[in-house]
Amino acid sequence: MTFALAVLLAAVLLVVLLPVASYNRFVRQRNLVEESWKQVDVELRRRYDLIPNLVETVKAYAAHERATLEAVVAARAAAAAPTASRAAQGADESALTRSLRGLLAVAESYPLLKADTQFRMLQGQLAETEDRIAAARRFYNANVRGLNTRVEAFPSSVIAGAFHFGKAEYFEVEDLAVRAPVNVDLGDA
Hints:
This protein is mostly helical. It has 7 helices and no strands.
């Protein structure tokens, strides 16, 4: 009788503890996804802070490239504004990257600008920041993949449904050309 009671008690504990452990793991994964998004956001903010300096430097040499400069400023403002979803943020970031590519293409037409120390330093910082954004995006998306897999996989999907844990949104860039790193040509430094 004691053995049967011990087995029953172990079974009840197992039935209670497994869902609790699964719930706690969902909470940890959800928090990890949010924490990794904060790192992406930090890197994006760093890029946003570099852009005005880059625009001002280009403006000093290429003032008649007004449309390109305005496109970069507008894209930066849109990307820096709060968005409803990670997909919307990804679209804004894609537009910003395209406009930055246009700005750097304009710089190719101005040898004095390309030789400017400030411009070259800003280009280097921008390239480094782009690399950091890519690394933060990969880390975030890996955490999203882990959470989404648990949300969909059985038996954890039962706990996910019961406690309303949903899938997280990936942070993706929609345009394949934008996925390539920003080309930084430091000339014959």
